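Minutes, structural biology subgroup

Action item carried over from last meeting: produce the structure token record for Glucose-6-phosphate 1-dehydrogenase (Roseibacillus persicicus). EB confirmed the sequence was re-checked against the source entry. Recorded below for completeness.
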Amino acid sequence: MSNPFRDDLVARLRADACTVVIFGATGDLNHRKLIPALYNLAVDGELPPGVRIVGFARRDWSNEFFRESLEKINKEVSRSGHDPEVWAKFAESIEYHCSEFTDQEGYKGLAERLDAIDSERGGKGNRLFYVASAPEFFDDILESLKGAGLNEAKEGGWSRVIVEKPFGTDLATAQHLNEVVNATFQEKDTYRIDHYLGKETAQNIMVLRFANAIFEPLWNSSYVDHVQITCAEHFGMEGGRGGYYDKSGALRDMVQNHLLQLLSLVAMEPPTDLSADGVRDEKVKVFRSMRQWDTPEKVAENVVRGQYVKGYINGEEVPGYREEDRVNPESETEAYVAVKVMLDTWRWSGVPFYVRMGKRLPKKATEISIHFKDVPGVLFNAVPGGVPGANVLVIRIQPDEGISLRMNSKLPGAAVRMEPVKMDFHYSSSFGKSSPEAYERLLLDAMAGDATLFARRDEVEEAWRFVDHIERAWHESDNKPPMTEFTAGSWGPKEADEMLGREGREWRRL
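Output recorded by EB:
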């Protein structure tokens, strides 16, 4: 019997040759993320031979124009640079299919073309459908795929679907979309993508915890004081993003998916194995253990929302949130949110997880910091300055991927004086190459049938359940928690600092 794993013994299934159909192929996601990811896989020799790419969209483009459009952007954004010879060979596998998302005839034509591709290359009929369109077309695309019989795998092959975020806008819409997806594809063939889980450092969280004996014994309420998860962005609503963002906000756009997913990796119990469901079973338990802030009073105490006002970023004046392009001048949408999350589990009883996300902060960075408890100070009471601070383990997700550990050390000299020092690991310098882009790993995993880094239905719904209570308190209750303000270029509203300050803690500066 052949070994289903790669010959280099990496615990990962082989990716199969397939046809990748990308809906919304003329959009920014395909041009800037998906095609460059597939191109870089080809450069690295990771893309299975025989992979074909079909772009599906409404614009009346030719194959040649589509390829030229993709090449232009690839030259700008490709991680590995742009090699004209490699691109020319790669582009031979790309074609374009023009159709409305609601036109069943267009899907019949797609089915005929996919059959022809399989006949040309002698393929098994493996199809990977990537729904990268605007969210309002998700239902139409999924139901039309079913209407054309494209959701059914051919004998000896497979048919899978990747669905982009946002996966719903609240619990009810997420449940509806899940019903539509599961009426079209089986759960095992459904891949709800969250690109944060494809980032190298996010993948490394389980290795850090479970492959290093020095960390996991300390990874609990006996030793950890609290955890912070921060996503800071220095940009605002450039590029017309205000129209989308003002309907979404920081909580739904980032916290519900990306940041709560990171929290689940930090907080989960060791899985029974590294199978997709083994890992995701433990993540779901974390989501189910989140204490619900289900009244306006609880939300006011444990959640801070805010909007930035005019300020300066890198020396340049920037407008306030309500003055941004396509933002309602009377908007009640948060551009900053800080949430205290409590997990009612044996491991994490009494340990707060502080999650924050903000626009127009001083820099762009995402990190997780594990703040350990203070040591008993009695031994160093007479030392000038005492112990300078507790140990902090920092997992940098972006942009400088790596891990650092702050510990205390004695300063050279006769006197006993201490200062914090840092042990620092950088992916780029330690391994001599840049990390693959998140979409590269995720696309390859979908081709291999490995759903470990994709969200399962119950994960999505439990995360929405937590977020919905907060959203209702903000927008539907008679006693709405206030909207705070902060100056663009600062680290957020003072109310967020006060939320931690009430418990003797403070935010870590990135």
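Discussion: The chain has two domains: 19-164, 197-501.
Next step: EB to file the record with the rest of the batch.
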